[in-house]
Amino acid sequence: MYLENKLTQPQRRDLLLKNAQMMAGVRIGDAIQKCIADTIWKLNSAKKIAPAKNDKLTRDVALQEQLEKFKEYEPRDEKDQTKHIRYIEDFPLVVQAGFQALEEIGGVELNPPVICEEQISITDKHTDGFFSCFLPVVGRTDIIFGDTSVPGKSLPCVNPDSMHMLSFPEAIIELKTVHTKLGKVKKNGERSFIKANPPTTPSFNHQVQCATYAAYYFFKIPVYLIYATANGYKIFTSNNCPGLTVEGLKRNFQIMLNVFRRREKLLTANEHKTREEIIEGAIELIDPMFDHPWCWNNFPLDLLKEVKEMWRMS
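Predicted structure:
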């Protein structure tokens, strides 16, 4: 709520995206998409998100192109610089893990078309049977296998658990990267690292994200949640993750809608007030969760102090 009302969109993007871990994930995703996508949704000359034909690159070329872009990233501070240096080293391994995961779930080059970064908008027609929101929910899918413009078109796909060929109209792929963490400083002054292994259970927030994409396709499409690391990968599906079953996806989708509905009601109840009064009224009803494990990590200290003052917790 604070980010949505207090900061401009450019400020939010600068605040939330510019750190080594996030930028590594962006560049790794771009390397994979540049190689496999037939279509990538992107900003066009009219400043609108629209599908564009992708001229596919080889894996080596795509990897090197995005690695060079990641090298240009300017770290925020000393710790971020240390991470940046390590992530440059890990970059090819994480990209390789991503490709291996995609190959396991069904022939990356065998099931065209592949559509990446498709912009979706969930409206009333997608929320029949749910407590829905007043405003649409928007998002962008990482990877879609199969032609979304042809309803019911069959797509060969491999179930990563049973390894039997199944037939689906499309498949949704959500790709996450997990990166090496900073460890303690050694006696010689060097920083130690904690290697990142694929998680044994998926993040709840990531399951909710998958549920959003599934809702757009009326929960008719299988969802694969991939975690790629420098030490391998893990694929979660409806077979090994209850949150990716149809029932689990619907439950998590409603949980997300409930959060959004509460935010809408907070704003609606104060819509006649000034922007500053709306923020102040929302603060009275929202827990800032300053003990959240990562939510406030990227905030500059001066901005974080300002936020805490708003809750009288400075």
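Summary: DSSP finds nine helices and eleven strands in the chain.
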